[in-house]
Automatic annotation (TrEMBL):
<dbReference type="Pfam" id="PF00881">
    <property type="entry name" value="Nitroreductase"/>
</dbReference>
<keyword id="KW-0285">Flavoprotein</keyword>
<keyword id="KW-0560">Oxidoreductase</keyword>
<keyword id="KW-0288">FMN</keyword>
<dbReference type="GO" id="GO:0016491">
    <property type="term" value="F:oxidoreductase activity"/>
</dbReference>
<protein>
    <submittedName>
        <fullName>NADPH-dependent oxidoreductase</fullName>
    </submittedName>
</protein>
<keyword id="KW-0521">NADP</keyword>
<dbReference type="InterPro" id="IPR029479">
    <property type="entry name" value="Nitroreductase"/>
</dbReference>
<dbReference type="InterPro" id="IPR016446">
    <property type="entry name" value="Flavin_OxRdtase_Frp"/>
</dbReference>
<dbReference type="InterPro" id="IPR000415">
    <property type="entry name" value="Nitroreductase-like"/>
</dbReference>
<feature type="domain" description="Nitroreductase">
    <location>
        <begin position="5"/>
        <end position="159"/>
    </location>
</feature>
<comment type="similarity">
    <text>Belongs to the flavin oxidoreductase frp family.</text>
</comment>
Protein backbone atom coordinates (compact mmCIF):
# COMPACT_ATOMS: atom_id res chain seq x y z
CA UNK A 1 0.00 0.00 0.00
CA UNK A 2 2.78 2.45 0.93
CA UNK A 3 4.47 1.90 -2.44
CA UNK A 4 1.34 2.87 -4.36
CA UNK A 5 0.45 5.76 -2.06
CA UNK A 6 3.92 7.26 -2.43
CA UNK A 7 4.54 6.46 -6.08
CA UNK A 8 6.01 8.94 -8.51
CA UNK A 9 6.55 8.91 -12.23
CA UNK A 10 10.28 8.52 -12.84
CA UNK A 11 11.72 10.09 -15.98
CA UNK A 12 15.43 10.12 -15.07
CA UNK A 13 17.33 6.90 -14.39
CA UNK A 14 20.70 5.85 -13.07
CA UNK A 15 22.89 4.18 -15.68
CA UNK A 16 22.55 0.92 -13.84
CA UNK A 17 21.49 -2.22 -15.64
CA UNK A 18 18.41 -4.23 -14.70
CA UNK A 19 19.32 -7.89 -14.56
CA UNK A 20 17.48 -10.25 -16.88
CA UNK A 21 16.63 -12.42 -13.87
CA UNK A 22 14.88 -9.54 -12.11
CA UNK A 23 13.08 -8.34 -15.22
CA UNK A 24 11.93 -11.81 -16.19
CA UNK A 25 10.77 -12.50 -12.63
CA UNK A 26 8.68 -9.31 -12.64
CA UNK A 27 7.19 -10.14 -16.04
CA UNK A 28 6.44 -13.72 -15.05
CA UNK A 29 4.71 -12.63 -11.84
CA UNK A 30 2.80 -10.00 -13.83
CA UNK A 31 1.31 -12.78 -15.92
CA UNK A 32 -0.81 -13.67 -12.91
CA UNK A 33 -2.88 -10.54 -13.65
CA UNK A 34 -6.52 -11.06 -14.58
CA UNK A 35 -6.99 -12.04 -18.22
CA UNK A 36 -10.00 -12.66 -20.45
CA UNK A 37 -10.85 -16.36 -20.49
CA UNK A 38 -7.32 -17.29 -19.46
CA UNK A 39 -6.15 -16.38 -22.98
CA UNK A 40 -3.36 -13.89 -22.09
CA UNK A 41 -3.98 -11.68 -25.09
CA UNK A 42 -0.76 -9.68 -24.90
CA UNK A 43 2.94 -9.73 -25.71
CA UNK A 44 5.74 -7.60 -24.28
CA UNK A 45 8.69 -6.44 -26.37
CA UNK A 46 11.82 -5.70 -24.32
CA UNK A 47 14.13 -3.04 -25.72
CA UNK A 48 17.62 -2.65 -24.26
CA UNK A 49 19.63 -1.95 -27.41
CA UNK A 50 20.54 1.73 -27.90
CA UNK A 51 19.94 1.55 -31.64
CA UNK A 52 16.46 0.16 -31.13
CA UNK A 53 15.68 2.88 -28.57
CA UNK A 54 16.77 5.38 -31.20
CA UNK A 55 14.23 3.90 -33.62
CA UNK A 56 11.44 4.04 -31.04
CA UNK A 57 12.22 7.52 -29.80
CA UNK A 58 10.49 9.54 -32.59
CA UNK A 59 7.23 7.66 -31.99
CA UNK A 60 7.31 9.05 -28.46
CA UNK A 61 8.13 12.61 -29.57
CA UNK A 62 11.78 12.06 -28.56
CA UNK A 63 11.03 12.15 -24.85
CA UNK A 64 14.36 11.78 -23.05
CA UNK A 65 13.38 8.77 -20.95
CA UNK A 66 13.06 6.53 -24.02
CA UNK A 67 16.78 6.68 -24.73
CA UNK A 68 17.77 7.31 -21.10
CA UNK A 69 16.07 4.30 -19.50
CA UNK A 70 17.96 0.99 -19.25
CA UNK A 71 14.85 -0.86 -20.42
CA UNK A 72 11.88 0.11 -22.57
CA UNK A 73 8.88 -2.24 -22.56
CA UNK A 74 6.22 -2.12 -25.25
CA UNK A 75 3.05 -3.88 -24.14
CA UNK A 76 1.05 -5.10 -27.13
CA UNK A 77 -2.45 -6.43 -27.61
CA UNK A 78 -1.83 -9.80 -29.25
CA UNK A 79 -4.45 -12.08 -30.80
CA UNK A 80 -1.94 -13.52 -33.28
CA UNK A 81 -0.50 -16.17 -30.96
CA UNK A 82 -3.93 -17.37 -29.82
CA UNK A 83 -5.26 -17.40 -33.39
CA UNK A 84 -2.31 -19.46 -34.59
CA UNK A 85 -2.90 -21.94 -31.77
CA UNK A 86 -6.54 -22.23 -32.82
CA UNK A 87 -5.62 -22.86 -36.45
CA UNK A 88 -3.08 -25.53 -35.49
CA UNK A 89 -5.71 -27.29 -33.38
CA UNK A 90 -8.40 -27.47 -36.06
CA UNK A 91 -10.34 -24.52 -34.61
CA UNK A 92 -11.42 -21.49 -36.62
CA UNK A 93 -10.47 -18.17 -34.94
CA UNK A 94 -12.77 -15.18 -35.39
CA UNK A 95 -10.77 -12.44 -33.73
CA UNK A 96 -10.21 -9.96 -36.57
CA UNK A 97 -12.69 -7.46 -35.15
CA UNK A 98 -13.00 -4.49 -32.81
CA UNK A 99 -14.39 -6.47 -29.86
CA UNK A 100 -11.38 -8.76 -29.92
CA UNK A 101 -9.08 -5.75 -30.00
CA UNK A 102 -10.84 -4.29 -26.97
CA UNK A 103 -10.48 -7.56 -25.07
CA UNK A 104 -6.79 -7.79 -25.93
CA UNK A 105 -6.22 -4.12 -25.05
CA UNK A 106 -7.79 -4.63 -21.61
CA UNK A 107 -5.66 -7.72 -21.02
CA UNK A 108 -2.58 -5.74 -22.01
CA UNK A 109 -3.28 -2.83 -19.68
CA UNK A 110 -3.99 -5.18 -16.77
CA UNK A 111 -0.64 -6.92 -17.13
CA UNK A 112 1.17 -3.61 -17.74
CA UNK A 113 -0.21 -2.07 -14.55
CA UNK A 114 0.59 -5.20 -12.58
CA UNK A 115 4.16 -5.04 -13.87
CA UNK A 116 4.47 -1.38 -12.91
CA UNK A 117 3.30 -2.01 -9.35
CA UNK A 118 5.69 -4.96 -8.92
CA UNK A 119 8.59 -3.03 -10.45
CA UNK A 120 8.10 -0.15 -8.03
CA UNK A 121 7.91 -2.56 -5.09
CA UNK A 122 11.28 -3.92 -6.26
CA UNK A 123 12.83 -0.44 -6.10
CA UNK A 124 12.60 0.42 -9.78
CA UNK A 125 11.02 3.54 -11.24
CA UNK A 126 8.66 3.58 -14.19
CA UNK A 127 7.17 6.05 -16.62
CA UNK A 128 4.03 5.24 -18.59
CA UNK A 129 4.10 6.68 -22.12
CA UNK A 130 0.67 7.56 -23.46
CA UNK A 131 2.25 8.39 -26.80
CA UNK A 132 2.20 4.73 -27.88
CA UNK A 133 -1.22 4.94 -29.54
CA UNK A 134 -0.44 8.36 -31.05
CA UNK A 135 2.07 6.90 -33.48
CA UNK A 136 1.34 3.17 -33.58
CA UNK A 137 2.61 2.68 -37.15
CA UNK A 138 6.12 3.85 -36.24
CA UNK A 139 6.23 1.36 -33.36
CA UNK A 140 4.78 -1.43 -35.48
CA UNK A 141 7.51 -0.86 -38.08
CA UNK A 142 10.33 -0.59 -35.54
CA UNK A 143 9.32 -3.72 -33.62
CA UNK A 144 8.13 -5.66 -36.70
CA UNK A 145 4.70 -6.32 -35.22
CA UNK A 146 2.64 -8.63 -37.46
CA UNK A 147 -1.12 -8.71 -38.09
CA UNK A 148 -3.30 -8.96 -34.96
CA UNK A 149 -0.59 -7.38 -32.80
CA UNK A 150 -0.99 -3.74 -31.76
CA UNK A 151 1.06 -1.55 -29.36
CA UNK A 152 -1.04 -0.34 -26.43
CA UNK A 153 1.37 1.23 -23.97
CA UNK A 154 5.07 1.72 -23.39
CA UNK A 155 6.77 1.73 -20.00
CA UNK A 156 10.32 2.94 -19.38
CA UNK A 157 12.02 1.21 -16.46
CA UNK A 158 15.14 1.84 -14.41
CA UNK A 159 16.59 2.70 -11.04
CA UNK A 160 15.49 6.25 -10.14
CA UNK A 161 17.95 9.12 -10.44
CA UNK A 162 16.31 11.34 -7.83
CA UNK A 163 12.80 11.43 -6.44
CA UNK A 164 10.52 14.04 -8.03
CA UNK A 165 7.53 15.64 -6.36
CA UNK A 166 4.32 13.65 -6.32
CA UNK A 167 1.68 14.75 -8.82
CA UNK A 168 -1.73 15.74 -7.46
CA UNK A 169 -4.83 13.57 -7.71
CA UNK A 170 -8.53 14.46 -7.47
CA UNK A 171 -10.26 13.59 -4.18
CA UNK A 172 -11.93 10.19 -3.95
CA UNK A 173 -15.41 11.70 -4.17
CA UNK A 174 -14.57 12.89 -7.68
CA UNK A 175 -14.21 9.38 -9.07
CA UNK A 176 -16.24 7.01 -6.87
CA UNK A 177 -20.03 6.70 -7.18
CA UNK A 178 -22.22 4.76 -4.74
CA UNK A 179 -24.76 2.43 -6.35
CA UNK A 180 -25.23 4.51 -9.51
CA UNK A 181 -23.56 7.37 -11.36
CA UNK A 182 -24.17 10.74 -9.74
CA UNK A 183 -23.74 13.54 -12.25
CA UNK A 184 -21.75 16.62 -11.23
CA UNK A 185 -23.31 19.98 -10.45
CA UNK A 186 -21.45 23.22 -11.09
CA UNK A 187 -20.75 23.43 -7.38
CA UNK A 188 -19.34 19.88 -7.42
CA UNK A 189 -16.95 20.76 -10.25
CA UNK A 190 -15.78 23.90 -8.48
CA UNK A 191 -15.12 21.94 -5.29
CA UNK A 192 -13.47 18.92 -6.89
CA UNK A 193 -11.05 20.92 -9.05
CA UNK A 194 -10.30 23.71 -6.57
CA UNK A 195 -7.09 22.16 -5.22
CA UNK A 196 -5.72 21.29 -8.66
CA UNK A 197 -6.41 24.80 -9.93
CA UNK A 198 -4.78 26.38 -6.89
CA UNK A 199 -1.42 24.62 -7.24
CA UNK A 200 1.37 27.08 -8.11
CA UNK A 201 2.65 24.93 -10.94
CA UNK A 202 -0.79 24.83 -12.53
CA UNK A 203 -1.25 28.56 -12.10
CA UNK A 204 2.10 28.92 -13.88
CA UNK A 205 0.88 26.67 -16.75
CA UNK A 206 -2.07 29.01 -17.23
CA UNK A 207 0.17 32.06 -17.24
CA UNK A 208 2.80 30.57 -19.56
CA UNK A 209 0.19 29.52 -22.09
CA UNK A 210 -1.64 32.86 -21.86
CA UNK A 211 -4.94 31.24 -20.98
CA UNK A 212 -7.73 32.18 -18.59
CA UNK A 213 -8.16 28.79 -16.94
CA UNK A 214 -6.31 25.49 -16.44
CA UNK A 215 -9.03 23.73 -18.41
CA UNK A 216 -8.14 25.87 -21.45
CA UNK A 217 -4.56 24.63 -21.23
CA UNK A 218 -5.91 21.12 -21.72
CA UNK A 219 -8.45 21.91 -24.45
CA UNK A 220 -6.49 24.51 -26.41
CA UNK A 221 -2.88 23.42 -25.96
CA UNK A 222 -2.25 19.92 -24.62
CA UNK A 223 -5.10 17.77 -25.96
CA UNK A 224 -6.85 19.65 -28.72
CA UNK A 225 -9.90 18.53 -30.66
CA UNK A 226 -7.94 18.79 -33.92
CA UNK A 227 -5.13 16.56 -32.65
CA UNK A 228 -7.52 14.02 -31.14
CA UNK A 229 -9.51 13.75 -34.36
CA UNK A 230 -6.33 13.33 -36.43
CA UNK A 231 -5.00 10.62 -34.10
CA UNK A 232 -8.41 8.92 -34.01
CA UNK A 233 -8.44 8.65 -37.80
CA UNK A 234 -4.89 7.31 -37.77
CA UNK A 235 -5.70 4.81 -35.02
CA UNK A 236 -8.63 3.40 -36.98
CA UNK A 237 -6.49 3.17 -40.12
CA UNK A 238 -3.74 1.23 -38.36
CA UNK A 239 -6.23 -1.02 -36.55
CA UNK A 240 -7.61 -1.92 -39.95
CA UNK A 241 -4.13 -2.57 -41.30
CA UNK A 242 -3.31 -4.84 -38.34
CA UNK A 243 -6.45 -6.88 -38.95
CA UNK A 244 -8.66 -5.73 -36.08
CA UNK A 245 -11.25 -3.96 -38.22
Amino acid sequence: MDTVENRRTIRKYLQKDISSDLLNDLLETSSRASTMGGMQLYSVVITRNAEMKEKLSPAHFNQLMVKGAPVVLTFCADFRRFSKWCEQRNAVPGYNNLMSFMNAAMDTLLVAQTFCTLAEEAGLGICYLGTTTYNPQMIIDALQLPELVFPITTVTVGYPDGIPAQVDRLPLEATVHEEYYHDYSKADIDKLYAYKESLPENEQFVKENRKETLAQVFTDVRYTKKDNEFMSDNLLKVLHQQGFM
